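Summary of Year 1 activities. Much of the first year was spent building the evaluation harness for sequence design. The harness presents a backbone, in tokenized form, and records the residue chosen at every position. We chose the following record to illustrate the format because it has been used consistently in internal testing since the harness was completed.
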């Protein structure tokens, strides 16, 4: 990952995140996230939180949108440009999020049951399967619900 820095997302990242999401949605056989729009991504960035791996010119190569609740964070959407798959960009973003939770917090996320690379990443970071949501995705696929809790 040369010339990559990690930054908090702001409104000036919306177009780059939207383009990355659209490119990625066309890349995978399984749906990613829900029916995200540019406006929905902008709202998440404006009203909640996000981290990004950016090039020196500000282009977003990977991002993670999440919400903060009193005792948990919930990852809403993650995306990585295909050319940055398996470079550690998403692992680093999620690890940064996990390193900054308190002992009483947990982190939740959902993933398409067919997205085996993502499942492998989450499990390698210490997420544990905590439930399923049958028929959750637009293709009828189930969502696997994962949770991370810091060891006390």
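For this record, the design step produced the sequence shown next.
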């Amino acid at each position: 990952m040369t010339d990559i820095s990690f930054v908090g997302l702001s409104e000036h990242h919306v177009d780059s995140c939207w383009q990355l999401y659209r490119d990625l949605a066309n890349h995978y056989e399984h749906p990613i996230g829900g029916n995200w729009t540019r406006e929905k991504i902008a709202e998440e960035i404006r009203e909640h939180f996000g981290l990004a791996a950016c090039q020196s010119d500000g282009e977003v190569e990977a991002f993670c949108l999440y919400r903060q609740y009193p005792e948990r964070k919930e990852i809403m959407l993650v995306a990585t440009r295909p050319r940055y798959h398996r470079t550690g960009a998403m692992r680093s973003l999620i690890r940064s999020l996990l390193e900054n939770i308190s002992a009483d917090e947990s982190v939740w996320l959902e993933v398409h049951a067919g997205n085996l690379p993502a499942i492998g990443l989450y499990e390698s970071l210490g997420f544990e399967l905590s439930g399923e949501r049958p028929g959750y995705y637009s293709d009828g696929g189930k969502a696997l619900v994962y949770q991370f809790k810091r060891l006390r």
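Residues 98 and 107 are 8 Å apart (CA to CA). Quantitative recovery figures across the full test set are reported in Table 2.
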